Amino acid sequence: GENVEQHPSTLSVQEGDSAVIKCTYSDSASNYFPWYKQELGKRPQLIIDIRSNVGEKKDQRIAVTLNKTAKHFSLHITETQPEDSAVYFCAATRGNEKLTFGTGTRLTIIP
Amino acid sequence: DSGVTQTPKHLITATGQRVTLRCSPRSGDLSVYWYQQSLDQGLQFLIQYYNGEERAKGNILERFSAQQFPDLHSELNLSSLELGDSALYFCASSVMGDSPLHFGNGTRLTVT
After folding, report:
1. CB B16 within 8 A of CB B80
2. How high is the pLDDT of residue B99?
3. Which of A90, A103, A14 is nearest to A48 (CA)?
4. Band of the pLDDT at A81, cuts 50, 70, 90?
5. B93 Cβ under 8 Å from any chain A Cβ
6. Which regions of chain B does DSSP assign to beta strands (E)?
7. How far A99 CA sits from the closest chain B CA (Å)?
8. B74 touching A, CB under 8 A?
9. Which of A12, A26, A41, B28 has its CA 20 to 30 A from that of B11?
10. Chain B CB contacts of A27 below 8 Å
């Protein structure tokens, strides 16, 4: 089955700086890679996703890049704000297989 | 609002008891997942159903069981509860595996 590794487990950045979270996956057939944000005590929410036929996708201050050859994908958050503080999870899957999540990154934005 | 409804929101019970958590998926979603999240931990996958059939199973304890009904709602049954079962239990649904997964607000279970 799919295995997803996520790094770092914790990340602190100054407000206004950029944050990068990286994930690697094991199944070369995986074709869907979403990212979820979970605030304390709340449900995980999808913030951006990418499919294997695309190398990069942007949505305002958030971007995701995918390197199929190396089997890794990354979340980039620019101009970070205090409300970006949360736990972020990456995930990967293919077809109708279950979504496999990474272990999460706790992002703290320092004012 | 994700469209996924979980009940109850909170549940407090004693060790040794049995509880049932309920989930109604988003309209049109055929796949239902259950996750367990202990304090400051990641999302522990329990089980997935697709259109009424069990699709994948994670590290779900034998004391736990689940099912998806013909109307696609799902129930997670937890029995012989232990203190360590205290956690946030999320249900999530999607159209298929490689489509966005939408989470409910969770059921917070406290075992005393």
Report:
1. yes
2. 86
3. A90
4. very high
5. no
6. 5-7, 10-13, 19-24, 31-37, 44-50, 53-57, 64-68, 74-78, 87-94, 102-103, 107-111
7. 6
8. no
9. B28
10. none
Structure tokens at B29: 């979603």
Residue type, B110: T
Q: Would you call B55 helix, strand, or coil by DSSP?
A: strand
pLDDT confidence band for A96 (50 / 70 / 90): confident
**Owner of token pair 């990286």:** A22
Could you say which of A31, A51, A101 has the minimum Cβ distance to residue B42?
A101
- Please provide the average confidence, as pLDDT, over all residues in chain B: 94
d(CA A89, nearest CA chain B) in Å: 8
Contact B5, B91 (CB under 8 A): no
Query: Which residue intervals of A1-111 are DSSP H helices?
Result: none
Q: Which DSSP helix (H) or strand (E) runs through A21?
A: strand A19-25
Which tops the pLDDT comparison, A97 or A110?
A110
Residues on chain B touching A34 (C-beta within 8 angstroms): 100-101
d(C-alpha B89, C-alpha B9), whole Å: 10
pLDDT tens digits for range B22-66: 999 999 999 999 999 998 789 999 999 999 999 999 989 999 999
The two structure tokens encoding residue B48? 């997935």
